[in-house]
Amino acid sequence: MPTLRLPGLVDVHVHMRDPGATHKEDWDTGTAAALAGGITAVLAMPNTAPPIADAESFDGALAQARKKARCDYAQFLGAGPETKGAVFHAAERAAGLKMYLDQTFGPLRLDEMTLWAEAIEQWPRDLPIAIHAESRTLAAAVLMAHLYDRPLHLCHVSTREEILLIRKAKERGVPVTCEVCPHHLFLSQADIPRIGEGRAEVRPRLAAPEDQAALWENLDIIDVFATDHAPHTLAEKDGENPPPGFPGLETALPLLLTAVGEGRLTLEDIISRMHENPRRIFNLPEQPHTWIEVDPDAEWEIRGEAQLTRCGWTPFEGKNVRGKVKKVVLRGSTAYENGKVIVRTGYGRNLRENPSEEP
Ligand code: DOR
Ligand code: ZN
Ligand code: ZN
Questions:
Q1: Which ligand is nearest to the CA of 133?
Q2: Which residue, by CA, sits nearest to atom 4 of ligand 1?
Q3: Domain map (residue ranges) of the chain
Q4: Residues 326-337: what's their mean pLDDT?
Q5: What pTM was computed for the model?
Q6: Most distant CA pair in the chain: distance in Å?
Q7: Cα of 11 to ligand 2 centre, how many Å?
Q8: What's the average model confidence in pLDDT over 138-144?
Q9: Is 39 buried (19+), middle (13-18) or exposed (0-12) by CB count in 10 A?
Q10: Are 55 and 86 in contact (CB under 8 A)?
C-alpha cells in the first residue's frame, strides 16, 4: 500500500510532568514523543507538582509549555478540594476542567459529592469538563451529566460495566462522551505476568479479558482514543511503591494501525476518534497545513529504548506492529521525519490562545 496521509492526531489525555517531575518527562520530551507518534496536539493533565489548580500554577505550566513544546497543546485546570473561584478565571484559556472523583497519582481528588456539584455549577457551561471516575463513581458522573444537563467527558473507560452504562446513558440522551486508552484495548490482566506487577500498575487497572472484549464489542460507543500517557521511570516502576501509569504517545497509532491491518478497526475509526471527535468535544481549532504520513506496511518491533519519551520503557516491549509514522507536517513545517524531530522547542502553540495575542 502506498504512503497514507492522515490528519494530525489529537491526544486529549497526556501527563507532561512539567513542572515538578521533569525527570519523568517535560514539555520538550513529551511533545517530541507526541510527534513521533503522529500526534500534533496534546491536552495536558493538571496533576503536576504543584497541581494546576490555581491561576498561578496554571500560568507557570503554560510558561514552561511556551518555551519547550514542539507540538500544539492546551493545559487542563484541575478541580482540587481547595479550589475556589480563582481557577475559574482562567477557564477560557484552559483545555477544560479535570475532575478526579477517585484516588490516583497526585493530590487532586474531590471525595465529597458537594465538591463535585460546586465544580460543575461554577465551571462555564459551554467549556469542557473531563472526569476521572471508575465504576460506581462513573455512574455518579453519568447522573451528574443528566441532572445538570451538561456535557461531561469520561476518561479512560476500561470495563464492561462502564461501557454498557455509557451505552444506556447515550441511548437516553445523557450528554456524555468517553475515551478508551490503547492499553485497555490491547492489554488485560492476562498480560501482567509478562509486564511485571510493578510496571503493570495503572489507573484504571488492566481489566479482565472479558472487559477488554467488551470495549471492542462496543466500539460505536467510544468517542475518543486517548493515550493517558503517564510516564514514570523504570527505577520508580520497579521500586518499592510503583506509581501507576504507562507511556503511550509513541505506541498508540502503530497499535491501532496494526488492528486496522487485522481487520479489527478501520482507518476511519482512527480518524474519527483521534481527530474529529476530540476536536468537536474539546472545541479545538483546526491546525492548518497539518498532516501525518504513515507507511501502513512497515513492520517493526516496539522497544522502550528507542522511544523519545524520557521514561525509557513501554508495557508493549517486544511487540511486533505494522504501520509507522514517516513524517509529520505541523502548520506548514516538517516537524518529524524518519525518526527525527525537526521542529525546535517553542514551536508548539497554545490552542487556546489567539495567534495574534502570542508574545
Ligand atoms: O495510571 C495513571 N497514572 N492513572 C492516572 O489517573 C494518573 C496517571 C499519572 O498521572 O501517573
Ligand atoms: Zn485518570
Ligand atoms: Zn491520566
A1: 2
A2: 203
A3: 4-341
A4: 98
A5: 0.97
A6: 55
A7: 14
A8: 98
A9: buried
A10: yes
Coil/strand/helix, residue 341: strand
Which grid cell is 261?
491491518
Q: What's the CA-to-centroid distance between 348 and ligand 2, angstroms? A: 25
Residue whose cell numbers read 468535544: 281
**How confident is the model at residue 320, as a pLDDT?**
98
Q: Which of 12, 15, 249 to mutate to test the pocket of ligand 1 (most atoms within 8 A of CB)?
A: 15
Is 76 touching ligand 1 by the criterion CB < 6 Å? no
- State the pairing for strand pair 291-301/224-225: unpaired
Residue type present at position 157: V
The C-alpha R_g of the chain, in whole angstroms, comes to 19
The third-level CATH classification (topology) of the domain covering 4-341 is: TIM Barrel (3.20.20)
Sheet holding 39-44, edge to edge: 9-14, 39-44, 72-75
State if residue 130 touches ligand 1 by the CB under 6 angstroms criterion: no
15 lines ligand 1 (CB under 6 A): yes
The string of pLDDT tens digits covering residues 252-302 is 999 999 999 999 999 999 999 999 999 999 999 999 999 999 999 999 999
Cell reading at 34: 507526541
DSSP 90-103: TGGGSS-EEEE-S-
In 3D space, the residue among 1, 26, 7 whose CA is nearest the CA of residue 293 turns out to be 7
For ligand 1, mutation pick of 228, 232, 236 (most atoms within 8 Å of CB): 228
Three-class SS state of 270? helix
